[in-house]
Task: structure prediction
Amino acid sequence: MTIDWLNFTPWSALAGGVLIGISAALFILLNGRIAGITGIIGGLFKPAKNDMGWRVAFTLGLIIAPLVWQGFQPLPEISIDASFTLLMIAGLIVGYATRYGSGCTSGHGVCGIARLSPRSIVATLAFMGTGFLTVFIVRHLLGA
Amino acid sequence: MKKNLNHFSALIFALFSGLIFGIGLILAGMANPAKVLAFLDLAGLWDPSLGLVMGGAIAVGLVAFTLAKKRTRSFLGLPMNLPTSRIIDQRLIVGSLIFGIGWGLAGICPAPAFVLLGAGSLKGIVFLIAMLIGMGIFEYIENSNK
Result:
């Protein structure tokens, strides 16, 4: 293993993580809800009375974040190497599988681990594991 | 009246939480799929940043959820919706394993996909639409199995 010291950004990573933690903290302590994006969006597919507003509001917050950011400074680099075809395949997989496994990086990886939920700890180990494995296969075995 | 006011403030706080979450993702570098993949690439030039993002978020979350678990209502008086299931079943494991494959292919997970929409990234938007279709397919299959 070789650490990429040039691109390693410990302070902004930690500060960004703390902000994500604060967001999850506010959401559970004020709204009584888990800041898990999969669950929040999933609920929009089966509309229930008085259950839509908070989901839309949280999602809207995520969407306007880069616009608010740009009010103060330019956005950092966004680089996506994957082709459009690969992005469509990956998107379908992520959408289906996160709902099937009841959560993603936010719900299981951040909130679930912070709740010390055994389910979320197992889920996070699982998707981290296949995430590492997939990149290894794509970059080092297939050489893409 | 008070109930309506609380309902309204709940929406404002939900918007604010989403905004802080998104700002956190951008600051952390997690809205950049190339940086996420650099974390997942253990055998290449490894960028450990994402580990610190999760560490920082979980550290704050531990305090908040410890407090939340002791309450039945939120500070706005809303019910505490903490998950209760403790069953580690095949769906949880298989779903998570497959999610990791999709995550490793593009470097995008659900929350950053919405940030990429706001950033106007065409490729991000294509991913987001496919992801929403994937969730729709899940919902469709679930409903037809009932």
User: Anything to note?
Assistant: Chain B touches chain A through 118 residues (CB under 8 Å).
